[in-house]
Design goal:
mainly alpha; Heme Oxygenase, Chain A; 9 helices; about 0% strand
Amino acid sequence: MSHAPIRRSQRLNQITHAPHEQLDKAVKANAPFETLPRYTRFLSAQYLFQQELKALYTDPQLIELIPDLPERCRAEQAKTDLNDLESPIPGPVAGSVNNPSLAEALGWLFVSEGSKLGAAFLIKRAAALNLSETFGARHLGEPAGGRAEGWKRFIRILDDLPFNEEQERQIDAGAVAAFERFNVLLEHAYTSAAEPQPA
């Protein structure tokens, strides 16, 4: 009896399980929702990650595959959140994703888009700090059309792309690299932000 082949998105979930767990632990360890200064550092990491991916969200080749891609980017929302909290906009951190292949870029986008599902829980935590979809936590807000629907549309496109073996390897590598990169940015945000916070 033959089993239905595993879908690409399912495989990506499996291979990113370990780096995803590692990132969850790192986020919890930094307790971003305990105080506003701690949240601001978490927000800095979110901004840096989204800013680095801006080039992918505006890439013409990727937009051909995913027409609503530019609207999915959260870099501007994260920047507005930092402005809301009167926090400086962090400068770039060396090592960002640079000119990835199409398949590798989709691996990065898989992680970025998937994080919107987790953001549903985070925004509830942010409410305890008096933050919301209209102040300080815009980047965690519900996307137009809903989280689940936006994710399903993205996954349908991703799962149906005709990839060769090398492209499958690249998309896997991109997804793992995205989790590892966010870990780096998170660590950077919590260590470099030891400078005095703005009054």
